[in-house]
Amino acid sequence: NAGVTQTPKFQVLKTGQSMTLQCAQDMNHEYMSWYRQDPGMGLRLIHYSVGAGITDQGEVPNGYNVSRSTTEDFPLRLLSAAPSQTSVYFCASRDQGRTEAFFGQGTRLTVV
Amino acid sequence: AQSVAQPEDQVNVAEGNPLTVKCTYSVSGNPYLFWYVQYPNRGLQFLLKYITGDNLVKGSYGFEAEFNKSQTSFHLKKPSALVSDSALYFCAVRELYGGATNKLIFGTGTLLAVQP
Predict the structure, then answer these.
(1) Do A74 and A68 touch, CB atoms closer than 8 A?
(2) Which of A4, A16, B24, B100 is the most buried (most CB within 10 A)?
(3) Would you tell me how many other CB atoms lie within 10 Å of the CB of residue B30?
(4) B108: nearest CA in chain A?
């Protein structure tokens, strides 16, 4: 039972590079979200999705894009990385019948 | 807009003593409240939740939390702390309005340090 899987676990980017953080869940959950965790700021919601083909912005969406073409996958794209995007990124999912979310192990991203 | 406040950046407690990690929230409707724990270099693990019913909620690893509507608080407690409880604890709130959404809003976290 894999749960929520994030790849990669670590990544270093140069300013201006692009990349995609992958998130996959095998629990057939409808709802998926991306958060970033920064010291002293807790977790802040970047984007979320309530089902395949439906996405919406969270608290800090600028600089990030998402898509949800399947129930299982919810990739997060950085089109032009900036040092301010250095953070730990978490993906989460839950299904309609449950209230608590399940989290991946995180991706630690450094932009230099 | 919904929000969560964890007023203490760090809580220090001796092993065997009771612990409390504080959380207050703000929502316009009925809250769903959660506690998560994060061990070093790991993701968040669900501890417990309040949805409705009994104000005292019991969760994993001997933790419990008390929902207080008048004080808009949801403090995390444990009668006897263990060194292995040392971790970062997050309180979170979700408000159900109209259709269900996944806007789970977190506090800034409280580092619990249990001394042997």
Answers:
(1) yes
(2) A4
(3) 11
(4) A42
